[in-house]
């Protein structure tokens, strides 16, 4: 199955998980395409000053792969900077947040799979 860029569903969420500003999301896979093993595979974009607030995952993990920009990433209370090519994984029972720490859009792939 091929899905063209123009066919990818796109949504915008404001103050996602208590964060600031907007998050633009393109669904790379639809929920039914996970065969019961996950729920999200998205291309995400945060404009400068925008963020996804701190939250924990239960029964699932989330992985971020940074494509462009600079991120301030909270990994269970420890803040680090992520750059293109960096990957951050949050296991079930752990928490995280992400914010655009630069002057250009922060783009990343987010994947949530069941534990």
UniProtKB/TrEMBL annotation:
Q: Which PANTHER family match?
A: CUPIN TYPE-2 DOMAIN-CONTAINING PROTEIN, OXALATE-BINDING PROTEIN
- Protein name listed in UniProt: Cupin domain-containing protein
Q: Name one Pfam family in it.
A: Cupin_2
- Domain called Cupin type-2: residue spans: 43-110
Q: Which GO terms describe its molecular function?
A: metal ion binding
Provide this UniProt record's keywords sorted from A to Z: Metal-binding
Highest taxon, organism lineage = Bacteria
């Amino acid at each position: 199955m091929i899905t063209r860029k123009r066919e990818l569903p796109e949504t915008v969420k404001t103050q996602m998980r208590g964060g600031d500003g907007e998050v633009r999301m393109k669904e790379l896979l639809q929920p039914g395409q996970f065969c019961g093993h996950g729920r999200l595979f998205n291309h995400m974009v945060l404009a400068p000053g925008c963020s996804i607030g701190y939250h924990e995952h239960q029964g699932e993990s989330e992985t971020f792969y940074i494509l462009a920009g600079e991120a301030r990433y909270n990994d269970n209370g420890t803040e680090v900077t992520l750059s293109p090519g960096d990957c951050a994984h949050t296991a079930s029972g752990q928490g995280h947040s992400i914010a655009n720490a630069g002057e250009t859009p922060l783009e990343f792939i987010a994947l949530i799979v069941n534990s």
